[in-house]
Amino acid sequence: MTEPWTMMPDLTRATWRKSTRSNGAGGNCVEVADLDVGIGIRDSKAPDTGHLTFTTRVWVTFLAQAKTGRHDR
Fold first, then answer.
1. What contacts 42, CB < 8 A, 6 or more positions away?
2. For 39-63, what is each residue's pLDDT tens digit?
3. Alpha carbon 27 to chain centroid distance?
4. Domain annotation covers residue 21
5. DSSP symbols for the chain
6. Which of 16, 32, 38, 48 has the CA that lies 20 to 30 A from 26?
7. pTM for the whole thing?
């Protein structure tokens, strides 16, 4: 199994997408892309500053927890 911190994704074919709840007014938005090694996340206001990559399993777990409010402040 590849460790999440050693993944080197191929970004040349990445198709980044924003949430449908993003209104384009410069708010706090992230973009997500399906990558060859998992899921990529980046800041939509600064897309060239880098990205985070997560395994699909970690991303699915995070989404499930977020939907239950586990990460709400």
1. 16, 30, 31, 33, 49, 50, 51, 52
2. 999 988 888 888 899 999 999 999 9
3. 16
4. no
5. ---GGG-----TT---EE-TT--SSS-S-EEEEEETTEEEEEETT-GGG--EEE-HHHHHHHHHHHHTTTT--
6. 38
7. 0.72
Q: Which two tokens stand for residue 29?
A: 């938005």
Which amino acid, 49?
A: T
CB atoms within 10 A of CB 53: 20
Count of domains in the chain?
Answer: 1
Mean residue pLDDT of the chain comes to: 83
Evaluate whether residue 11 is within a structural domain: no
Q: What does the pLDDT look like over 4-30, one tens digit per residue? A: 555 677 788 899 998 777 766 666 788
How much is the pLDDT for 1? 52
